[in-house]
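[job 0412] stage=complex_fold ligand=guanine status=START
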Amino acid sequence: MQLLDGKVVSAAYKEQIKKEVEERKAAGKKTPHLAAIIIGDNPASRAYVGNKVKTCGELGFNSTLVEYGTDISEDELLTKINELNNVEAVDGILVQLPLPKHIDENKVIATIKPEKDVDGFHPSNLGKMMIGQDTFIPATPYGIMLMLEHYGIETSGKNCVVIGRSNIVGTPMSVLLSRNSEPGNCTVTLAHSRTKNLAEVCAQADIIIAAIGKAKFVTADMVKDGAVIVDVGINRIEDATRKSGTRLVGDVDFENVKEKSSFITPVPGGVGLMTICSLMKNTLKAADNK
Ligand code: GUN
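[job 0412] stage=complex_fold status=DONE, emitting structure tokens
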């Protein structure tokens, strides 16, 4: 078994992005600028956005963090997005999801100017991705593609099972892996909560992408010997041996599945780090597109 190490791969990409930003600045071009909007005090969302803003600083990007309480109205949020749409200096805008129930996520995403939608969630960008046009690829699936490419994982002709059909991860992942490109050319099965005999479906997979948000859901009996395992989950579970009383685990039962896999991503230290990295790549692309 070999680890698909997000620390190593993201460090290499971040180094490359940092260098490009330095070159841009030396050539008198504008500094990439990401604006992040966070609503409420969900600790996980706060941590993710904090990391995105911190990474901007490390790579020489400018960033703006806009914070609201859960009492913000949908109108106020849409007004803020429109304002950022019109700020020339801002290249990328992201609104951290999930949103409070009274705010319509679809409306929010559709309000972000597609040219600044560095999450790649706008219907026009997702549509372009579907038909293989150049656009912003959603950060998590994009990060997974970079990871597979970095480790030279053979995907062509392989059976890939993606578990979970979210707009953010599972659905775009299934599209990217079935494309006629490298990585890609997989025969993809998109499994979800209504899939029958999921264990048997997974046991046929050369590559499993687990994105269902259930701790240790993928167990060793569901995995074929030598399979490549990519774990998108970040779940907090109780652990009395830790000072905090909790720890993070993925959607895969790592300790048991690792024995059967050829490659596997750890949690933490796997896909999550790649997600931030691809968000930065998208923001640099947005600045470049100007
Ligand atoms: N919530 C979970 N993942 C993401 C992401 O990639 N982008 C945004 N904006 N919110 C998220």
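Residues 139-272 form a domain with the Rossmann fold fold (CATH 3.40.50.720).
[job 0412] exit 0
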